[in-house]
Amino acid sequence: MKSQIEQLKIEKNAVILAHYYAPAEVQEIADFVGDSFYLAKVVRQSNADIIVFCGVQFMGESAKVLNPDKKVLMPDLTADCPMAHMVASGIIEEMRQRYDDLAVVCYINSTAELKCKSDVCVTSSNAVKIVRALPNKNIFFIPDHNLGSFVAKRVPEKNIILNDGCCPIHAKITAVQVLAEKEKHPKAEVLTHPECNADVIELSDYIGSTADIIAYAKKSETKEFIICTEDGVDYKLITDNPNKRFYYPNPHPCCADMKLNTLESVLSVLQKEDKEVIVDDDVRKGALKPLDKMLELGI
Length: 299
Ligand code: 13P
Ligand code: SF4
Description:
With 299 residues, the protein is α/β, with parallel strands linked by helices. The protein has helices spanning 2-11, 24-29, 36-45, 57-66, 91-98, 112-116, 127-133, 145-154, 168-171, 175-184, 198-202, 210-219, 234-240, 263-272, 281-297; strands at 14-19, 32-34, 50-54, 71-73, 103-107, 120-122, 138-142, 159-162, 189-192, 206-207, 224-228, 245-247. The strands form three sheets. A four-stranded parallel beta sheet has the order 2-1-3-4, with helices on both faces. The chain has a four-stranded parallel beta sheet with strand order 6-5-7-8, sandwiched between helices. Strands 10-9-11-12 form a four-stranded parallel beta sheet, sandwiched between helices. Strand 9, helix 11 (198-202) and strand 10 (206-207) form a beta-alpha-beta unit. The longest helix has 17 residues, at 281-297. The structure holds 1,3-dihydroxyacetonephosphate and iron/sulfur cluster.
């Protein structure tokens, strides 16, 4: 199957992008693997005719918005991020009326429609930097409550208004689960994604995006780590560090939507070119502004 995928990629001038949460065998055949910010930058610069995005809907949508002339395909168009929809209807307009100088900061894990109503997008790897750089005092941070409060602690000079959304996978990781792993592995460092709850973040030695966690584990002198994020990162962690040990909260955090990206579905979409991401023209233009602003401020 892998050789068929390779051949079709060459024949069709296609490129495969995968998030670190995609299954290991998909990361293995991908041309680019990374966190959301890295993949957005790769998409923007891509010269391929076809981009196969192994992620979830908001990633495929953002790829189409950032590079509209390309055919963007997803192995499974139903792979979605529940958090991307977690903003109550009318609340953005209500906040804009309440605060004169409001900036709506939108985590990239959001629908293109929500991006259209926002001033700037962020990812977990650049949110602190971008919020700090904004001239506005009042910030409405959507949709992730946990990433929003993580940013608020690090940028105390801003009034950050939080929204009630979360990643159901990261929110299920509890401090009790992390403490149980720490008891079993007392020398391990705890590396955590900022989508986790505040009590898990407080127990952590390092907090960062998936790419940041992977980079930290590589350069750390420590040999054991407790990883508080989706377990797809394990593939890269083990590949980079065969002599280090990685443990996860029990049960392992696993995003079922990300796991819909299988080798079979990648091959099928390359053969049939049938699962194309379509974004309405007006929505595309509206969502491009905050994404472009992120690329401008987040580098
Ligand atoms: P990053 O890619 O920024 O690490 O975010 C993780 C995530 O949940 C993507 O859905
Ligand atoms: Fe969404 Fe969470 Fe899955 Fe990431 S891990 S895609 S935030 S549900």
